[in-house]
Structures are given as structure tokens and as C-alpha cells.
Amino acid sequence: MSITNEKKQEIIAQYGTKPGDTGSPEVQIAIWTHRINALIEHFNTHQKDLHSRLGLMKMVSRRRHLLDHLKKTSEERYQTLIKKLDLRK
């Protein structure tokens, strides 16, 4: 469930604050979200893959920590990101 280099560059270009920005929380959260969505698709066909499910839970936890950090530092950036990624219902 890895992410291709081309897709990663697209995400960086879309969510980065400047060219080549790979460290901002927005980019990291977007990359984690893409990886999480890919794993969720994997579980539609492989329901009993418990080892990957553990990895999914770790990814969700890491993304949650990044989201908490972003919310603490900039509420406005947090709100725009969750709307772009459609994370909250």
C-alpha cells in the first residue's frame, strides 16, 4: 500500500505552501490520508488481513497527532485542510 512517487509529488504540489514543501503539516496529513484511503480499499477485498489493519490504526494515530498539532498552531489552516480532504462529516 505504498504511494507512488508521482502521486506524492502531486500531493506536495497541491497542499504545499511553497515548491518542494514536504515538511508542512498539511502535506504530511494529505500523504497519510492518501495512504489510509488506499488501505481502506485493500480491506474491501481482504477483510481478514489483521496485520495490515494494525498498520492502518498506527497511520490513523499519526495523522491524528498531526491534525492536533495543526489545530493547536493554526485553527484556520486546520479548518481549510479538513474541508479539502473531507475528513469530518
How do the strands and helices of this protein lay out in sequence?
Layout: H1 5-15, H2 25-45, H3 50-73, H4 75-85
Helix pairs in contact: 1-2, 2-3, 3-4
Features:
4 helices; mainly alpha; 89 residues; single chain
Walk me through what this model shows.
With 89 residues, this protein is mainly α. Helix 1 crosses helix 2 and helix 2 runs antiparallel to helix 3. The model has no long low-confidence stretch (mean pLDDT 93).
Brief summary:
By secondary structure, the protein is mostly helical. About 75% of the residues lie in helices and about 0% in strands.
Q: How confident overall, as mean pLDDT?
A: 93
User: Helix content range of the residues, please?
Assistant: over 70%
Series of H and E elements: HHHH
Please give the count of helices.
4
Specify the overall morphology.
globular
Strand content: under 5%
Span from first to last CA?
A: 25 Å
Q: Please state the CA-atom Rg, rounded to the nearest Å.
A: 14 Å
Structural class of the helix and strand makeup?
mainly alpha
Total count of strands = 0
Sheet with the most strands, sense and barrel status:
none
The low-confidence parts are: none
Task: Please state the oligomeric state of the protein chains shown.
Answer: single chain
